[in-house]
Backbone:
């Protein structure tokens, strides 16, 4: 007799991945990042398995128009360090949004993914573009309302 309480675990070969498109215009950064992170992990799918990549490909457009509430444009600081003494660089969110608007969303989503090999693999399925144009029309991404 088969055990009726056996749980399902997805196999990497059985996972069906879709392409979705998210419009970031006028929406708060944190809300977009949480929804995108959930889609990348596949947590909204019934086949979700924590140690398997079951998520979808996500295309984020209009990253330049993302909304940062309060004084975050001036107060939020991104740091990078090259491991040399005195090489700590600081960039505010406003400067980063002007120069590289895609990185603001990418950094926010990266912070919400697992800090391991799976998280790094999931981040490669995220495509962020500053404007409304993207080269993924052939994949027929489905629009998602947030």
Residues:
């Amino acid at each position: 007799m088969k055990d009726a309480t056996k749980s399902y675990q997805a196999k990497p070969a059985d996972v069906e991945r879709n392409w979705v498109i998210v419009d970031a215009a006028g929406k708060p950064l944190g809300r977009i990042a949480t929804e995108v992170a959930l889609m990348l992990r596949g947590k909204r799918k019934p086949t979700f398995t924590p140690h398997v990549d079951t998520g979808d490909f996500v295309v984020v457009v209009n990253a330049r128009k993302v909304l940062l509430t309060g004084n975050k444009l001036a107060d939020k600081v991104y740091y990078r360090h090259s491991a040399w003494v005195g090489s700590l660089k600081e960039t505010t969110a406003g400067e980063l949004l002007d120069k590289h608007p895609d990185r603001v969303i990418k950094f926010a989503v990266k912070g919400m993914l697992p800090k391991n090999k799976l998280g790094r693999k999931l981040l490669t399925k995220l495509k962020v573009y500053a404007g409304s144009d993207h080269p993924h029309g052939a994949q027929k991404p489905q629009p998602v309302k947030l």
Remarks:
- The CA atoms of residues 129 and 135 lie 10 Å apart.
